Structures are given as C-alpha cells and as structure tokens.
C-alpha cells in the first residue's frame, strides 16, 4: 500500500512538473514573439518603405507628384513611446533642410526634428494632429505629418538614404551611440537586441538634450 502511494505521488509530481515546464515554455515563447514584434515595429519591411527616402534626423520623404509627404520613422516612435501632441508649421511656412520641421511631445518631454528637404508647407495632416496614435499604427502611410512643395528636390533627394542604407546606418551609428553613452538603460538597438518602447522616458531629464542631439541632430 505504501509502495503504491509513493508511486502515485511520484507520478503526480512528474505530471505537475511537466505542466509547469509547459507553461514556462509557453510564456517564454510568447515573450520572444512579443519582443520580435516590438523590434519589427522599428525595422520596417523594406517593401513598406521602398518608395521613401530617409534623412539622418529620422524623418522620411515620399514623392507624390508635385508634393512630398514627410513623416518620422519607426525608430523615433519606438524610442519616445506614445506621442501626445505634435506642433506643426502652418501651410505656407517655408522650411529649410536640416532645420526645425516639427516638435513632438511625449510625457513631460519634447523632441524637435529636422526637415529632410527644403520647401513650403502645402498641407498638414489634421487627422494625425487629432489622433497622434496613428504614428504608431502607420508611421509610413497614414502617419505622414506634412506635405511640402519642394524647392530643390532634384538636388536634395540624392543626399537622402535609401531604406536599406538607412537600416544599416541605424545599426552602426545609433546602436553605437546608445552603447557608449547610455549603456545603463539596458536598451540597445541592433545586433539582435531590442529597444524598449518609450526608452527615452528612462533617460534623466538633464541628459535628454544631449541624447536628442546625438540621436536626432536637434535640440529638445
């Protein structure tokens, strides 16, 4: 009788252990999948961005006949987290490449980004201004921020990055900046690792200006 009881106890222990291992494996697999999804948000499918070009300030352009759509890239959206407000120039405003184009607000911080081309603001995405969440849902389509009538498009387009070159540039340059200056965050983009959503909010406020200059070439 005792032997039977011991055998049953041992069998139950094995079953329970198997169930726990299975649950642990499922949770781990789910986390790995979630991490991959989050990373993929930063690295768009090349087919999705094949018709756009990138500026080193993490903005992009898509030529639409006489006008050019301009938006921010998925790296920016992932890095800052949820954008709550966007300050855009009004239609008719003249823009210079490499100068301020808009300011995004997130939490108690803000980030000013640079215009990828020169020209005049033709249209502002009013729907996006009302629903900034579109930046996360569709940064390269519905998430365009302004349309610009370009001044010297033929001269400025060759200076921008193709999607494949831009992805390599992010890996080499941005990951290096994060490693060298903000290793304590535990977040690195590139080399198979993920950048945590909203990582910018983990940076001390007195260091944010330095971060924005190094990553985006602009002042906060």
Give the topology.
Blueprint: H1 2-42, E1 53-55, E2 59-64, E3 67-72, H2 74-80, E4 85-87, E5 94-95, E6 100-106, E7 109-114, E8 119-124, H3 126-130, H4 134-137, E9 146-150, H5 153-156, H6 163-182, H7 205-216
Antiparallel strand pairs: 1-2, 2-3, 3-9, 4-6, 5-8, 6-7, 8-9
Summarize the structure.
By secondary structure, the protein is α+β, with helices and mostly antiparallel strands.
Strand content bin: 15-25%
Radius of gyration: 23 Å
Percent helix among the residues? 40-55%
Shape: globular
Q: Helical element count?
A: 7
For this structure, what is the CATH class? Mainly Beta
User: What order do the SSEs take from the amino end to the carboxyl end, as H and E?
Assistant: HEEEHEEEEEHHEHHH
CATH fold-type name: OB fold (Dihydrolipoamide Acetyltransferase, E2P)
Main β sheet profile: 6 strands, antiparallel
**Total number of distinct structural domains:** 1
Q: Write down the overall mean pLDDT.
A: 78
> What structural category arises from helix and sheet content?
alpha+beta
Which architecture per CATH? Answer: Beta Barrel
Taking pLDDT < 50 over at least 5 consecutive residues as the criterion, the unreliable ranges are: 18-22, 24-41, 187-192
- The CATH superfamily appears as RNA polymerase II/Efflux pump adaptor protein, barrel-sandwich hybrid domain
- The N- and C-terminal alpha carbons lie at a distance of 76 Å
Annotation, overall tally of beta strands: 9
Strand order of the largest sheet: 1-2-3-9-8-5
